[in-house]
């Protein structure tokens, strides 16, 4: 099973490609405020480097937090969109061993259907300014 992993909870984003439990390629880059602009090209380059296509992806593992609101929102939106568009399962994890946990869940046939963020704190909504 070809598995794509995504982690975007802090300024350094991470994407990986696995064949079951075997890591094929993994990249970390300083995305910071360019995450939305760079994440798709990083995933595409990862796939191209391994001679793979978008349709070779058979599952997605996403880190769900805790972490940056914007980073998690962007990363999980990309992960969910890919899983939905490719019609593959997605799992979200938040453990320190998030990749291993997520890969094992996919290999057991689990599917969260939608990866939801965990921000690590209650949401604070500020009143609208007049």
- Whole-Å distance between the termini? 53 Å
How much of the sequence is in beta strands?
15-25%
CATH architecture: 2-Layer Sandwich
Radius of gyration: 15 Å
Compute the average pLDDT: 94
* Largest sheet properties: 5 strands, mixed
What is the approximate shape? globular
Under CATH, the topology can be stated as: Nucleotidyltransferase, domain 5
**Count of discrete structural domains:** 1
State the share of residues found in helices, binned by percent: 25-40%
Name the helix and strand elements from N-terminus to C-terminus, one letter apiece.
Answer: EEEHEHEH
CATH homologous superfamily classification: ATPase, nucleotide binding domain
Counting helices, strands and paired strands, the structural category is alpha/beta
Low confidence ranges: none
Query: How are the strands of the biggest sheet laid out side by side?
Result: 3-2-1-4-5
CATH class: Alpha Beta
Number of helices: 3
The tally of beta strands, per DSSP, is: 5
Descriptive keywords:
five-stranded mixed β-sheet; alpha/beta; Nucleotidyltransferase, domain 5; 130 residues; 3 helices; globular; single chain; 25% strand
Helix and strand layout, with pairings?
Blueprint: E1 2-7, E2 12-19, E3 22-30, H1 35-49, E4 59-63, H2 69-86, E5 90-93, H3 98-107
Parallel strand pairs: 1-4, 4-5
Antiparallel strand pairs: 1-2, 2-3
Please give a structural write-up.
Helix content is 33%, strand content 25%. It has 130 residues and is of the alpha/beta class. The protein has a single domain (2-107), classed as Nucleotidyltransferase, domain 5 (2-Layer Sandwich). The chain has a five-stranded mixed beta sheet, sandwiched between helices. It is globular and about 55 Å long. It starts with a strand and ends in a 23-residue tail after the last helix.
């Amino acid at each position: 099973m070809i598995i794509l992993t995504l982690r975007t909870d802090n300024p350094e984003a991470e994407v990986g490609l696995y064949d079951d439990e075997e890591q094929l390629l993994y990249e970390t880059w300083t995305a910071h405020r360019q995450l939305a602009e760079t994440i798709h090209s990083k995933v595409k380059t990862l796939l191209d480097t391994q001679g793979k296509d978008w349709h070779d992806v058979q599952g997605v593992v996403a880190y769900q937090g805790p972490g940056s609101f914007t980073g998690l929102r962007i990363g999980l939106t990309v992960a969910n969109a890919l899983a939905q568009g490719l019609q593959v399962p997605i799992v979200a994890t938040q453990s320190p061993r998030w990749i291993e946990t997520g890969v094992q869940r996919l290999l057991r046939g689990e599917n969260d259907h939608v990866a939801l963020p965990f921000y690590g704190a209650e949401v604070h909504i500020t009143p609208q300014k007049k």
